[in-house]
Amino acid sequence: MGLSLPGLALAQQLYLSLKAHGEGNLGTQALILTLERLNNVTLQPSSAPSS
């Protein structure tokens, strides 16, 4: 098809970083771990307000 898919190239780079840190088995939802490392931050889960 000859399509340019830069978003997929970025996702692949992030996933390869996960694998390099031994976290490749965590799945694509773990891509945030790579973003945390790149930005030197640790995100905490937000607590949903009780209804």
First-residue to last-residue Cα separation: 49 Å
Give the number of DSSP strands: 0
- Protein structure class: mainly alpha
The oligomeric state of the chains shown is: single chain
Which series of helices and strands comes N to C? HH
Give the DSSP E fraction (strand runs of 2 or more residues): under 5%
Based on Cα principal axes, name the global outline.
extended
InterPro entries: 6PGD_dom2
Protein name: Putative 3-hydroxyisobutyrate dehydrogenase-like 1, mitochondrial
Tell me about this structure.
This protein has helices at 6-20, 31-39. It is mainly α and 51 residues long. The chain has a domain at 11-39. The mean pLDDT is 89. This is Putative 3-hydroxyisobutyrate dehydrogenase-like 1, mitochondrial.
Features:
single chain; mainly alpha; about 45% helix
Concise overview:
With 51 residues, the chain is an all-alpha fold. The protein has helices spanning 6-20, 31-39.
Note the topology.
Blueprint: H1 6-20, H2 31-39
Protein name: Putative 3-hydroxyisobutyrate dehydrogenase-like 1, mitochondrial
InterPro entries: 6PGD_dom2
